[in-house]
Amino acid sequence: MKSKDVVIIGAGITGLSVAYYLSRNGVRNIAVIDKSFPGSGSTGRCGTGIRQQFTTREHIVLMRESVKLWREWETSLPLSVHFRQGGYLWLLETEKEVSNFEKYVKLQNLFGVESRIIDKYEAKQIVPDLDIESIAGASWCPTDGNAYPFDTVEALKLALKNYGTEINAFEEVVGIETRGGAVKSVITNKETYSTNLVIDAAGFGARKIAKMAGIDLPLKLYRHQIAVSEPVKVFLEPMIVKGELYFTQTYRGRIIGGTDLNEPETESLQSTERFLEKYATELLSVMPVLSSLNVMRQWAGFYVVSPDHHPILGGTPVSGFLVATGFSGHGFMLGPVIGKLMAMYVLHGIMYLPEANNLGLDRFKKGKLIEEKAVIG
């Protein structure tokens, strides 16, 4: 048996970020456990995007702060995470859409996000290869961007190694012992960890982990698919969004993107030909110049979706069992701020951003849901 001050379940960006900020603040006796390799879940399967163009105060403020931390990570972590602020260009097809996004932009501006509504001709100036015939305007935020998921994971792993934090890969949690309404230990297929503090950051496995502690998290799993092209000379900086479609170019020159098939809840991660057909059709309608590009790979990952498309953060009815999950497709971009929020919650019992206090598990019983309207892909 090992004794640990903190056990974090899940070595994606959330778990590693929490461990990073705890370690930076002097906590040393931490174990991060993952049933596969770090970044193998939703982190390593995401579309790389980082945006502040949301529709609720909670998401806007958290992402505004997360972008600040992404900039810090780019210079302070041992390796580059390839964070690039190339912007998000959200193409709007109708005047009604433009009117709705004008309201969202006002809210974003109110909380310090530099977004604005532009006409389709300015959108074409930003991305000259766009076909703008079918759009009425766009929402543009130049401080949005993207980063490279696996480089981010490697950078966090190296930082944690320097702090002496234990990362145990290919180790599966099989049980959580509670006594008197409090956490006592985490049992894996290899070890038992005596601890009074567990953080469930297990992504698509978070609900299963929580059930081991007697907690039912209101989460559903939805498959979302992504494709990536062969590398070409870098020519595209923004993430482009139109309806359910999104795509950008990585620093390695590959076009990466996806769209939504509006499928029911599933536990399958099998990628499909139907997705590729829909994605290719939508992609070429927006940027015909990509018609000769070869697709090299496609895959699927989970959106771990809460009832209001916002994360579930903080304490639970079981003392010492904390959760950071339910990001609804936004976990990678929120990673830095979630890590800092959860670390401060562990150390001081409060979230350092007041808006995060609205994202506790108890909001579902109280009926205080905060619905996010801008969910992509």
Overview of this protein structure:
It is globular, with a radius of gyration of 20 Å. The longest helix has 20 residues, at 57-76. With 377 residues, the protein is an alpha/beta fold. 30% of the residues lie in helices and 25% in strands. The protein has 2 domains: 2-47 and 150-218 and 308-366, 3-Layer(bba) Sandwich (FAD/NAD(P)-binding domain), CATH 3.50.50; 85-144 and 220-305, D-Amino Acid Oxidase, Chain A, domain 2, CATH 3.30.9.10. Helix 1 runs parallel beside helix 5 (149-163) and helix 1 (13-24) packs parallel to helix 8. The strands form 4 sheets. It has an 8-stranded mixed beta sheet with strand order 6-7-5-15-16-17-14-18, with helices on both faces. The model has no long low-confidence stretch (mean pLDDT 97). It is built from 9 helices and 20 strands.
